[in-house]
Structures are given as structure tokens and as C-alpha cells.
Amino acid sequence: MSGCLDNITCPGWTDAVAERRNLIASIIAGSLFHIGWWFLIDAAATSTFDPAYHSPGVFSTVAVFMINAVSNAQVRGESYTTGCLGQTGARVWLIIGFLMAFGSLIAACWILFGAYVVTEAENPWPGVAIFLQNALIFFSAFVFKFGRSEDAGW
């Protein structure tokens, strides 16, 4: 899956982009992660909401670290054959990370619609910010995991 964009060719700039693929993917993923947390910080600074609504963002952040702790080569079984569970352990760790990320995004939707849309809250910005935070963190995990090439360096 990490090489799904390898066969796209555009004359002129593809060589320069291919050489810096890891750098570009890291910058985009880090920017998405930063903007997501910035939305929640803005919502927390400008309005009051239940402190439990921070939980999906925290779990989403932990999920990003879990997803990126396992390389694609470890999941394929190319570089991680020893250890506690080997390739199976890497796959289980990765699926738990993805489940946490999906669960956090679903929880953010639930908070948005349950607490702000259905009740027709006066200020829906905190619910929107919680959802945007989790959506951007979720997408940053995918960009970093599948946008990088393990063959090239930084």
C-alpha cells in the first residue's frame, strides 16, 4: 500500500518529488496533526465544554504513535522475524492502533452530533473542533504511514 503512488508519472517534477517523498509526507502529516490539535486548543480557550470531550483526541494521538511504531516491512514480515510475536505481533499492534483511531473518530462524531447538533447548542464550535481535531489526526496517521517510502532516506 505504501507504493500506491509510485507508478504515477508527470514529466519534469516527479524525480524531485520522488527524492523527497519521505520529507514531504512527514511535513504534511505533521502539519495535519498540528492543525488538529490547534483547533481543539482554540475551542478550549474560547468556550467551555465537558473535560471528558478531550478523550477522543488523546486516544487518537496514542493511536498515531501505535500505527507509526510499526514499519511496513515489519507488517510484511521482511525485517521483523524474532521477538515476542514476530510478524503476527506487529500486525496485531497495527490493527489495535487502527481500531483506536477509528474509535476516536466515531467518538468525535458522537460528541459533535449528540451534544451540539441534536440539542441545537448555541455555540457548536467545540463539537466541530473536536471532530476536526480527530479527523485531521486520523488523516495524518494515514499520510505518514502510507505516504512514506522505506527505500529512500530523508
TrEMBL record:
Main location: membrane
Chain segments annotated as coiled-coil in the UniProt record: none
Subcellular location: Membrane
Family label: Belongs to the UPF0220 family.
Domain of life of the native organism: Eukaryota
PANTHER family, alphabetized: SMALL MEMBRANE PROTEIN-RELATED
Membrane topology: Multi-pass membrane protein
Family matches, as InterPro entries: UPF0220
Species in which this protein is naturally found: Exaiptasia diaphana (Tropical sea anemone)
Transmembrane segments: 23-41, 53-71, 92-113, 125-144
Keyword Transmembrane in record: yes
Keywords noted in UniProt: Membrane, Transmembrane, Transmembrane helix
Keyword Transcription regulation: no
Protein name (record): Transmembrane protein 50B
Gene Ontology CC: membrane
Pfam families: UPF0220 (PF05255)
